[in-house]
Amino acid sequence: MTPADRFLCADAARARDDAFVGTAPYGVVWVLIEYGRGWPADGFEGLALDPDTKAQVLAAARASRARILLVRRHGRRRPGSGGRWAVLRHDGTGTPRQQWGRWHRDQDLAQIVTALGSSGEPGLPPVVLVCAHGVHDTCCAVRGRPVVGALSTRWPDLVWECTHVGGDRFAANVVVVPDGVYYGNLDARSALTVVQEHLADRIHADHLRGYTTLYPPQQTAVAAVLGRFGPAGRHAYDVTGTVRHEGGWRVRVSGRAPDPRVFDVEVRARRTPPRRLTCRGPADSSAVVYDVTSIRAT
Q1: How many other CB atoms sit within 10 Å of the CB of residue 270?
Q2: How many Å apart are CA 48 and CA 38, to the nearest integer?
Q3: What CA–CA distances, in Å, run from 130 to 36, 38, 122, 163, 166?
Q4: CB atoms closer than 10 angstroms to residue 282
Q5: What is the residue-wise DSSP string for 10-41?
Q6: Superfamily assignment of 1-214 in CATH?
Q7: pLDDT > 70? residue 22
Q8: Are 19 and 204 in contact (CB under 8 A)?
Q9: Residues 123/137, Cβ–Cβ less than 8 Å
């Protein structure tokens, strides 16, 4: 197969104009582990670490419904293990919290278990993650690495490469944690704009996949309000009601002061025809797409 014949899922998704709104996986807790060696296809679970420590971390993460991501600074590779670790959470009040530490031996990672049981520190700047997990999916490397290079030059202290975050065909994917915001279909230029706006607390709908604190119909409703009425802060809107009815959902999106408008957003779901959705997935799969049929101010 020549390079021109190689299937790239992100190229195919853009050619089809695949919808990406409502595709952020639910989550409010993330574990980051710096790992400078090569990343296995299944990330942390594939690392050859001390079995007892690894089992403890996995069990604690599952109990907290935390996602474990390996991270590294762009362009840096180290022959040995060790580095930083972090537990980041978006708590019930919407306050982002973080706890950071360092590890040198495998057993040091057991600190993560304790950190998952604590609240963490508020007020720290967010972490910008760019999926560049080429062993998992080719497009994550092809499209992710130029983006992480551009962002790392601009914000070297905030930006990390990371393992698989989901939605390979929407590469380049950027996730801001613990804010819990997924962006997709980015390139180096658009990523700089998106992250700059995010850090200024202006979230635009253009590349927004969704907020991880919401479920897909709710993510779609909030993105529709942002698209209709313009960018807003991460917590400018709350989902204050979701009603399931025949054919879809009615999602109530309420603004916070100084703009306390309330909108009822009608969302419907549909399935696409079977398609090849990832570079490495040999079988075709159907995807769920969420469409907004109306937005009504109440």
Answers
A1: 12
A2: 12
A3: 15, 16, 23, 8, 11
A4: 6
A5: HHHHHHHT---TT-PPP-SEEEEEE--SPPPT
A6: Glutaredoxin (3.40.30.10)
A7: yes
A8: no
A9: no
Q: In Å, how far from its chain's centre is CA 144?
A: 13
Take residue 92 and report the two structure tokens written for it.
């019930």
Name the strand (E) or helix (H) holding 61: helix 51-63
pTM score over 0.85: yes
Q: What is the pLDDT of residues 145-164, one digit of tens each?
A: 999 999 999 999 999 999 99
Q: Which amino acid is at 287?
A: A
Q: Strand pairing partners for 257?
A: none
Helical ranges in 155-280 per DSSP H: 188-199, 216-229
Q: Please give the helix or strand (H or E) that residue 175 lies within, else none.
A: strand 174-177
Domain boundaries, the chain: 1-214
CA dist 188 and 211 (Å) reads 22
What pLDDT, in 10s, does the model give residues 178-210?
999 999 999 999 999 999 999 999 999 999 999
Is the alpha carbon torsion for 105, 108, 110, 113 positive or negative?
negative
Residue 53, H or E segment: helix 51-63
